[in-house]
């Protein structure tokens, strides 16, 4: 082989080996760490590379935390990275919490980060409280007047409750429940309108932030509107229902009366039939009396005269009886 070609190949191989060695041995990171008073060995950086952990990420995180006065080891940072956490956000959150005198250690910060919450935003929320506007909450006082209230809840993050604590939805639900309870226990709606802070004090005293990821600082009633007169509406509905029940009962009684009247008419018709049947027996009895000699002709004429006299007296006593009978 040509000596010149061999020399070129040797130089290329040497350069490749040199760059690979620089990649495997991040001397510049080690030197930077030493200048920043960060105790980390070159061997540890090489092992990070073999464990597929970016040495620059760990080194920079240790430099920042050391400059901020935090005591964090490279093993803790490496473990959190391998667990899938966000190292930079954890370091920023720890620094912010330390400057704001908020108790937050590395273990709790990594737990919050691995739980899926933004630990840096949580620290910022602890420093700068957040205002949550509740949706309109409708409640009815004891006098039946509906009130619609809107509240503003000032909260800050509770670092110790971020893992496993309830969120904003629970806060809003509990505040709404407290508003409904307070308005519902008021004698009349004027009391609520005169003292809206009574709602805030009552709701705030219930400890609504228990078990949540937030700490309630204040509850302020932003607006109260008067709604419908629910009591009067319910009374109207009740009166209409009572009227329908009364009409149904009256209709039932009317139907029973009609049925009773029909029954009495049927009985009257039956009685008339019996009378007619009895009257039909009279001529037969008279005929039998004639045959047996118990009734004479003069006796029969006397009966006819008495009957005619009775009919005449009846017609004189009731002159319109014949017209009524005709009209019927």
* Distance separating the two termini: 149 Å
Could you give a short account of the major beta sheet?
Answer: 4 strands, antiparallel
Helix content: 55-70%
Put simply, the count of helices is 14
The topology string of helices and strands comes to: HHHHHHHHEEEHHHEHHH
The mean pLDDT is: 80
The share of residues in extended strands comes to 5-15%
Helix and strand composition category: alpha+beta
Shape: rod-shaped
Task: Give the low-confidence spans.
Answer: 324-328
The value of Rg in angstroms is: 53 Å
**Strand runs, count:** 4
Describe this structure in words.
Helices cover about 65% and strands about 10% of the residues. Residues about 325-328 have low confidence and may be disordered. It contains 14 helices and 4 strands. The protein has helices spanning about 5-25, 25-35, 40-50, 55-65, 75-80, 85-100, 105-115, 120-125, 170-185, 190-195, 195-205, 230-290, 295-315, 320-325, and strands at about 130-135, 135-140, 145-155, 215-230. α4 packs parallel to α6, α6 (about 85-100) packs parallel to α8 and α9 (about 170-185) crosses α11 (about 195-205). Strands 1, 2, 3 and 4 form a 4-stranded antiparallel sheet that branches. By secondary structure, the protein is of the alpha+beta class.
Topology of this structure?
Blueprint: H1 3-24, H2 27-35, H3 42-50, H4 55-67, H5 74-82, H6 87-99, H7 106-114, H8 119-127, E1 130-133, E2 137-140, E3 145-157, H9 168-184, H10 189-194, H11 197-204, E4 214-229, H12 230-292, H13 297-317, H14 321-327
Antiparallel strand pairs: 1-3, 2-3, 3-4
Helix pairs in contact: 4-6, 6-7, 6-8, 9-11
